[in-house]
Design a protein that fits this description.
alpha/beta; TIM Barrel; 6-stranded mixed sheet; 15% strand; globular; disordered N terminus
Length: 358
Amino acid sequence: MLHYITSIILSISRMTMEDGSTAKSYFTAYADVCFKEFGSYVKFWTTINEGNIFTIGGYNDGNSPPGRCSLPGKNCLLGNSSTETYIVGHNLLLAHASASRLYKQKYKDIQGGSIGFSLFAIHFTPSTSSKDDEIATQRANDFFFGWMLKPLIYGDYPDAMRKTVGSRLPVFSEEESEQVKGSSDFIGIIQYLTASVTNIVTNYSQSGITDFYSDLGVSYVVSPWAMEGILEYIKQRYDNPPVYILENGKAMKQDLELQQKDTARIEYLDAYIGAVLKAIRNGSDTRGYFVWSFMDLYELLSGYENSYGLYSVNFSDPYLKRSPKLSAHWYFGFLKSKTSFLGSQGIMQLQSNFSSSS
């Protein structure tokens, strides 16, 4: 799949910043090869994975490839956090639109697939009932969602971004706006967190720093889940596009003994899947849900420290032995409509069965 097609951007990161048309043509050529070779097998293509977080991490914070930034205390040799984040985000949208147009013109009628764009989603809620925090929450939504979702749905950036970022935010030509608008058959959502938002006032004359977070003008603290809120917001604000939840899961420390009986993961998945169901019943056009992940693997930022898998992998074993966790048994039962597994009593029964079989 093109779920990780962003790798093509890493190899031409300078072009992505300075020569968007060249980067776009390379990206589209690569996509063309993928469509041609794998299109008979793949029906759902995601051109850009976590477009917002890929851009912020790689060009604002510098903590993910290609590691560019200009923030004090960061170990970045090159970069400009004030401008590159927005330039790269702009070119990602244009590259996606170009690949999408190619697929729809050349392959869609023959292969019958769909093409989309994915975002990392944080559900923002105001930390107080103050007007400032309510405005800050909408600003956070505009920056994290609207930055890429509004061009994909309506063809331009949110007013709050244009006002705050000013000339540092690229401008779509009329032709580009029309190409980006409607270029996604669906929106892919990666969702793990919600956040409580507090308005902050940044004094640029003192700090001398402008980047994505200073433009955003909020601070936030991670708090409990709110999947339903994310889907409801997208439904109301962005004309209820088709949504696939491409990642959602519970991180746990790599401890083989504790990993096997991962009750906390079951409770997490039970709650999140329930929230998806509520959103669908309330009219959200959510069409699919994927647990992250099928088995333990290398995570980009945390390595092997945390795991999300339904199956544990013994990385000390030369054969990398895989074992189903309690959550794998629960999820199997859920998919088979054995609803008695849901709830605390069902989990306790599952634990008992799991211990007996072990």
